[in-house]
Amino acid sequence: MANGEEAVAKVVKQSRCVTCIEFFGPDHCYQVSCEHFYCNGCLDDLFRSCLVDVSLYPPRCCRETISFDEIKTLLSLNIRADFLVKKEELDDDKKLYCKEPRCSAYIPHGNRTPISGTCPACTTTRCISCEEAPHEGTCEEKKESQEVHELAEKEGWRSCPACSALIELTIGCNHMTCRCSAQFCYICRLRWKTCTCPQWDENRLMARAHDVAHHEDPFAGADAVAAAARNPRERPECDHDSWARINESGLQSEECRDHLPRYIYRCRQCAIQACSRCRLNRL
């Protein structure tokens, strides 16, 4: 926006939306706890998006949750109603869904027993553990379930202890954060920081260091790779507090896997690359 327009915005006490970068008056925007402003339309879009992408839930900016109760009057009636309907499912750390392909409805806690769940939409009942029809014996005796476990073991995948989603480790650190927000050790699957497993897989660490070094210089040598590997060893936990904007096209966000047409953000500490939405609302 031109300097003249910014001056006018200050006079009439307008604020700039962090998402669309437009100016809005106080009745049409909201300041979240991290002091960023969101216009009503972008708040609507964020709350709409988190209903279909659980990695965006709870809606947040700079890792601070945006309170639904505080901003619900700013949302459209449709988004407000949809969010209230979906909230139990989104807050459920042991989500259960109907196995029928034509249904796939969420099964709320009121429709569950310790061993089974009944779909409120199509009335199909299934085993909570293996997600198959109710059966005798243990779930491990089920052939199909065993085949999945064998494949995961062969490929080196791990299942999230909270939601059972299969996860593949692609970067060296064994600290895993599932899309359902559960944090656990990739080696033993215990809650993060409750085990004695090593922080890093050395081979993956060096592969990551090679990628980071070559982000900066396609012709980087062994010294640059060693320097890139040293940073995560010295500072294994990263809060992603400082970002650099990289004005190159075609770079990929490592969280959502989207390729960005004009620019991307790169964390100055761990060098993870992220789009604007991942940087503000997902990480």
Automatic annotation (TrEMBL):
It holds the Pfam family IBR. Its EC number is 2.3.2.31. CDD domains: Rcat_RBR_unk (cd22584). It is an enzyme of class 2 (transferase). SMART domains: IBR. Keywords: Metal-binding, Repeat, Transferase, Ubl conjugation pathway, Zinc, Zinc-finger. Coiled coil: none annotated. GO terms for molecular function: ubiquitin protein ligase activity; zinc ion binding. GO terms for biological process: protein ubiquitination. It catalyses: [E2 ubiquitin-conjugating enzyme]-S-ubiquitinyl-L-cysteine + [acceptor protein]-L-lysine = [E2 ubiquitin-conjugating enzyme]-L-cysteine + [acceptor protein]-N(6)-ubiquitinyl-L-lysine. InterPro entries: E3_UB_ligase_RBR, IBR_dom, TRIAD_supradom, Znf_RING_CS. Residues 13-201 form the RING-type domain. It comes from the Eukaryota. This is RBR-type E3 ubiquitin transferase.
